[in-house]
Amino acid sequence: MATSSTFTERIQQWASQLITDLRKRWWWVFIVGPTFAFIWLLLVDRVIGFANKYIDNHLSLSVLRPFVHNSWNSTITKPVFALIAGILVPFAILLVHAYLETRPTGDKPELFAHFVRSHLMPRNALHSMTDQLLKARGRENYEMESDFLFEIFVVNRNPNRPITIKDFICEAKIGENWKRLARINDLTTYQLQKGDDERESTRKDLINFADMTDRIPLTYGIGYRGWLRFELVTDKNTLEKQVFTRLNILDAFGESHPVLPPEPTDTTDGTVVHNPAKILQT
Predict the structure, then answer these.
(1) Which helix (H) or strand (E) holds 85?
(2) What are phi and psi for residue 166, nearest 5 degrees?
(3) What is the pLDDT of residues 52-62, one digit of tens each?
(4) Which is higher by pLDDT, 103 or 171?
(5) Which residue segment(s) compose the domain that 59 sits in?
(6) Which of 75, 102, 129 is the last residue of a domain?
(7) In the structure, what pLDDT confidence band is assigned to residue 2 with cuts at 50, 70 and 90?
(8) Handedness of CA 13, 19, 24, 29 (dihedral sign)
(9) Are 28 and 47 in a shared domain?
(10) 153-172 pLDDT per residue, tens
(11) Are residues 149 and 269 both part of a single domain?
């Protein structure tokens, strides 16, 4: 079971690294693609062409020969092969690069991280009331301040290399562009509330992941779980759509570690709500 879980995590890290490479190195297709397309055409002409001539001269395949001749002499065969080679070869190179980047080694930190849960919260606890007032004044769209709250779990899986965390890089897709979000270290605006009844429910503060791991060497097998807060300022119409995000952890060596999709984790400790004390202050 543990081996299966590790294999699944490696595939997820591999896929995430491949997507990152494709975003950063999309121009490879225009450089590597034509180069390998030329090499492929040369290979086709010399090797496959030679094999075709050999078949013509030494084999009497009366049924197969007309098909081979007609297919190979078609005006679209070579361009189609060149197009396929121009696409597959750069992709294969990036695939190998992604594998090498995510391959566990004895010296490289193997930081494994996944989301526990995430929330997009309006900064203003009285947002619904404010929205109704603005609508009454004819303002359907307006700028809003919101916060992404991520609870994450992180563990170092390399027994030979402790590592410290340098930074957290969170990006949100706004329109067609990815925008980096500023991290806010103060989490006291929000709390975890357990129970629906205000009088009987219990509240507790969010555990700050950045403070918990600040300048702390993450050693093998010791898991850390806590919250991060990132500010998102955009218009109301954008927030009403699904906002895609990605989060990476930057270690002291400058290596980036993607935070992977959620795994089954106990989240019965409460629901994220606004801190009443902060509401009264505002």
Answers:
(1) helix 77-102
(2) -95, -40
(3) 676 666 655 55
(4) 171
(5) 2-102
(6) 102
(7) very low
(8) positive
(9) yes
(10) 999 988 888 889 999 999 99
(11) yes
